[in-house]
Amino acid sequence: MPELPEVETVRRGLEPVLVDAHFERVEQRRANLRFEFPESFVERLSGQRMLSLERRAKYLLGFLESGEVLIMHLGMSGRFTISRAGANARKPGEFLNEAGKTSRHDHVVFSMSNGATVTYNDARRFGFMMLAQADALGDHKLIRNLGVEPLGEDLSPPYLAERCAGKKTSLKAALLDQRIVAGLGNIYVCEALYRAGLSPKCAAGVLARASGAPSQRAAKLVPEIKAVLEDAIEAGGSSLRDYHAPEGDLGYFQHSFAVYGREGLECARAGCGGTIRRIVQGGRSTFYCPRCQH
DNA sequence: AAGAACTCCTGTTGGC
DNA sequence: TGCCAACAGGAGTTCT
After folding, report:
1. Would strands A78-84 and A106-112 be described as parallel, antiparallel, or unpaired?
2. How far does the CA of A237 sit from the C1' of C16, in Å?
3. What is the pLDDT of residues A225-271, one digit of tens each?
4. What is the predicted pLDDT for the residue at A37?
5. Residues A186 and A122 in one domain
6. Residue A291: CB partners within 8 Å, gap ≥ 6?
7. How far is Cα A79 from Cα A89, in angstroms, rounded to an integer?
8. For labeling, which of A35, A61, A101, A198 is most exposed (least CB within 10 Å)?
9. Is A3 a catalytic residue?
């Protein structure tokens, strides 16, 4: 489900109900999601106050008073839903939860001291939750190899050129590699490449000149990556199928897709007249305009 | 050792 | 209407 803009939207939705609240009750309904839950997961969360909720790449990081961090990843289908005490209380045996998803996939329920209930639902169970020591978070195996955040100064044409220099893998695959840029996923890579007029099929190495300096392509691509992510965050993320922010609001950036999911439709670039194509790279769909992406 | 293929799991959709 | 194959926003692990 979520790429950086969706995870950031979820973070902003959860922050007001989780931060400064205590976990009054934690319900863990199965032993594993993608991975086993941590040892004594419920006990280590219960009674804890969350000091802050941050995002790194597609991870949500809840810093706890105990010095531990609750690391959460939504995988493909993970979603959080907030409900208030008394409101929309689900009757026993009811088939659909507040998110309109089957409640059999409600795997974790946090009851907070401020009266909010936060439910984690994940049909495919590619998401997970872990606990780590905050002061060693940078050494955690999930965190330590992550590349730069795409928003902000760290992602620059020289950085991207250096990391892609000599790479024969496709530009599409390189941008999906979380060790290079952290937080991009299939949709926003397609959209950024389209905006930059770059072919997803060309070798990633084209971003660097022989000297290692950034090429024109790198200079063009970097601002488009930032722009598409900023636009999507502004829109509250993309609601595909039934994704929604924790409060139930729908993001609407999916209406702004130029290529994703638009196979067979005409390229929107003025004067182009090309037709959007779908190809498969690394087992995943890539959408692009063969006429104006080179 | 880079790069590609495979893997986890369930739900939805589109074609016949 | 029913059935079945293809596909879905991720990424760690295992191969070549």
Report:
1. unpaired
2. 38
3. 999 999 999 999 998 865 668 887 888 999 999 999 999 999 999 99
4. 97
5. no
6. A267, A272, A273, A274, A275
7. 18
8. A35
9. yes
Active-site residue identified among A11, A55, A58, A195? A58
Whether A175 and A89 share a structural domain: no
Closest by CA position to A61, among listed A26, A107, A108, A14: A14
Helix (H) or strand (E) holding A219: helix A216-234
Q: At residue A81, does pLDDT exceed 50?
A: yes
What CATH number corresponds to the domain at position A256? 1.10.8.50
- The stretch A171-200 carries a mean pLDDT of 98
Domain closes at, from A104, A139, A174: A139
> Domain range for residue A212?
157-288
The letter for the amino acid at A230 is: E
Mean pLDDT of all residues in chain A? 93
Nearest to A77 by CA among A252, A242, A229: A242
Within a domain: A152? no
